[in-house]
Amino acid sequence: MATMVALRKSTGTISSGARSLLSFQRGFGTSDHGYTLPDLPYEYGALEPVISGEIMQLHHSKHHQAYVTGFNQAMEKLQEAHSKRDPQTIVQLQSLIKFNGGGHVNHSIFWQNLAPVKEGGGAPPEGSLASAIDKEFGSLENLKAKMMTGGAGVQGSGWVWLGLNKDLKKLIVETTANQDPLITKGLIPLLGIDVWEHAYYLQYKNVRPDYLKNIWKVVNWKDVSSRYEKHA
Ligand SMILES: [Fe+2]
Hints:
Domain Manganese/iron superoxide dismutase C-terminal: 125-227
Radius of gyration: 19 Å
EC number: 1.15.1.1
Helix content: 40-55%
Structural class: mainly alpha
GO molecular function: metal ion binding; superoxide dismutase activity
Domain Manganese/iron superoxide dismutase N-terminal: 35-115
Bound molecules: fe (ii) ion
Distance between the termini: 37 Å
Organism: Riccia fluitans
Order of helices and strands: HHEEHHHHHEEEHHH
């Protein structure tokens, strides 16, 4: 990052303005070199026994990293194709961008959607989100059941979501295939549960419903609520 290096060289320290800029860029997982893997907000083993540290480490440092790397490579190719005014290549790159960019977007939400029990993981939602869930689904338990059924029914790899239709102010349970982000269905993602085998297989083997039943113990409803309140 040229600006930061220049500032460090000139002053030996980072000014508060530069620190804000750095923090802003980290928040969006970007740098001058492209998109970067965001830090997990907890230790790899902090979600045990619900999700093992081994799964979390592989999932974050290998799988999510691969999406980030793939996204950066696709964006470089896109820039190159655009500089050559090559629309055919630009269109061809869209599926690669959707898959890797979607993987980056989805996992960045997923890590924040979870929290260790000692940090509030599993504590039920409160306030406006709790009211909206009761209104739409009848109860939190009904919402969980709907998401568990939806997630178990995803064929192959994908995600099950609690999303918000911003125009109708309506909560909706939806699934997406592969790494399609929820925004491709016109919904704001509030809570996403990764049902790719890489998210659970080492611990739950082929029993995806057990993973879907247990994950509620570490859902960070405070994070889900804050996403809801930004748009509702
Ligand atoms: Fe994943």
